[in-house]
Amino acid sequence: MRLELREITKRFGDFTANDAIDLVVEPGTVHALLGENGAGKSTLMNVLFGLYDADGGEILLDGERRVFTGPGDAMAAGIGMVHQHFMLVPVFTVAENVMLGHEQVRGPAKLLDLDAARAKVTEISDRFGFHVDPDALVEDLSVGAQQRVEIIKALSRDAKVLILDEPTAVLTPQETDELLEIVGQLRDSGTAVVLITHKLREVQAIADTITVIRRGTVVGTAEPTATQEELASMMVGRDVSMTVDKDPADPGEPMLEISNLTVIDPATQLTVLDSVSLEVRRGEILAVAGVQGNGQTELAEAILGLAEITSGDVSLDGEPLAGRSIRENLDAGIGFVPEDRTEDGVVAAFTIANNLILDLYDREPYSKRGAIDPSAVADHADEQVERFDVRTTSSQALTGSLSGGNQQKVVLARELARDLKLLIASQPTRGLDVGSIEFVHKRIIEERDKGVAVIIVSSELDEVYALADRIAVMYHGRIVDIVSPDTDRDTMGLMMAGAHGDQEEAA
Ligand code: ADP
Ligand code: MG
């Protein structure tokens, strides 16, 4: 089925998220919709899927104008969507979840029975080699398998147009390859696939056609032969260098030493960190790689004191951190960029200026004799906003009004403004556009070159490779291995799935 979107416009209040977007997707092709975070990709697809009412424009399927008042309409017309956040019910089986989709569409009177759903799952799973058991509980499946269930669900409705919204964000490199293979099979069977992503590598690997959107408008189309630099500069509207220049590390004394660190989650009694030992020296970047949820977050939090240590030792510059408060740890020279910036990174109800001095407000030059000096705070804020290219109307705007990427820049600006011994940055560029990623990476390398010990936690392998001097791979709360950044992607992917790599410790 041929999909055509004509001049789709969608506004949220005064904000135009989609501005007269045109898009044509031919059957049997993979059309990549590429754009930085917040460009309007999900919004466009939500319009197509009947989740949002467009303010203008039309949707045509095989040349015929269609109006969808809800996802049910869209699905009935042959459109399937796998959302950025899966919508499965964890305590239901695969077949039950697939059935659930039909129920919503057809109403209780025409429920598919469970046997039919099971048979359907088996048929689709066999056809594409998905290896999904219809009777498995969704909560027992890997993230990759859950995603295949979402695809099965869409295909069980005979989707002729399949939308995949950032499908690889949660996958290991191997799972990503498997998914791209599946996408290729779907294309070959005649499906029109819309693949939404900001990952240039994937676009190059699978796309037949590429549409780039920036700030709600189509800025152009590109051939799959386009280079990453070309695609990136279309995405951000200026030249972008994709490789960060970085001299080999010149590590000094150990700054952070961790031995046999174990953390048991008090709520669940699960061992989230299992006897982790590592050291980070001055002037080096240790990247902690792994699929999200394998203890990386807990490791970062335990060092700062946000997670309670069950056993083991952590010391900074030779001093044990046990028994210190978070404030004392920050004062001792730890910079911390949390994974969840809206939860832990910024105070949304404070101005940008005040967020930038969150842990410095009672010091000179921001405070003098106990009173805050507003002009010193404002000057500092204006300087940092400029330096970190925080997109805002004013440094006095509320931080909550910023987009996620810009909030992240505020956190980074604040943490990097202090004199650090250790920088811990979790997912430092999540939600940032490629241009900002380049900038943040440069700043992190500058910290390293000043002699700061740096730990980066990242589930993006590209980021790990761009920054790491050494890589610690985590799986199920343990360090699988610590390897050099020369380790290839396949080996990394296997380690991220728990397989041991080369046992030699990287120099
Ligand atoms: P993408 O998927 O390309 O990352 P989105 O389509 O999710 O981007 O968002 C595009 C822009 O629209 C963003 O600035 C976002 O903040 C805004 N936006 C998205 N959904 C809503 C909504 N329901 N209400 C208000 N603004 C929204
Ligand atoms: Mg999106």
From TrEMBL:
Domain of life of the native organism: Bacteria
Database matches in InterPro entries: AAA+_ATPase, ABC_carbohydrate_import_ATPase, ABC_transporter-like_ATP-bd, ABC_transporter-like_CS, P-loop_NTPase
Topology in membrane: Peripheral membrane protein
GO MF terms, alphabetically ordered: ATP binding; ATP hydrolysis activity
Domain ABC transporter intervals: 3-240, 256-501
Predominant subcellular localization, coarse grouping: membrane
Keyword Electron transport attributed: no
Compartments where found: Cell membrane
Gene3D superfamilies, A to Z: P-loop containing nucleotide triphosphate hydrolases
Keywords attached to this entry: ATP-binding, Cell membrane, Membrane, Nucleotide-binding, Repeat, Translocase, Transport
Single GO cellular component term: plasma membrane
GTP-binding keyword on record: no
Family annotation (PANTHER family): CARBOHYDRATE TRANSPORT ATP-BINDING PROTEIN MG119-RELATED, GUANOSINE IMPORT ATP-BINDING PROTEIN NUPO
Protein name: ABC transporter
